[in-house]
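PROTEIN DESIGN WORKSHEET
SECTION A - STRUCTURE
LENGTH: 63
TOKENS:
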């Protein structure tokens, strides 16, 4: 599975980083960096939590 970010919706709040720091990092400039966009089955729960925590619904998980 793969993470997709809608950059037009992301406002750099970093809630996704708190839920899944292996995948998301917000830089000092407020830009989201995808540390890794690939999601293993073992990582799926934390990435889904990150997606749920995003207040602007900027994240989705692709098969
Ligand atoms: S939680 Fe959503 S808006 Fe905030 S940095 Fe992550 S993707 Fe962007």
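SECTION B - SEQUENCE
RESIDUE ASSIGNMENT:
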């Amino acid at each position: 599975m793969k993470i997709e970010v809608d950059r037009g919706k992301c406002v750099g709040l970093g809630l996704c980083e708190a839920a899944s720091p292996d995948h998301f990092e917000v830089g000092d400039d407020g830009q989201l960096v995808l540390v890794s966009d690939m999601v293993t089955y073992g990582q799926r729960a934390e990435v889904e939590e990150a997606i749920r925590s995003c207040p602007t619904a900027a994240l989705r998980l692709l098969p």
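SECTION C - NOTES
The beta strands are 2-5, 24-26, 32-34, 59-62.
The pocket of iron/sulfur cluster is lined by residues 10-16, 24, 26, 32, 54, 56, 58-59 (CB under 6 Å).
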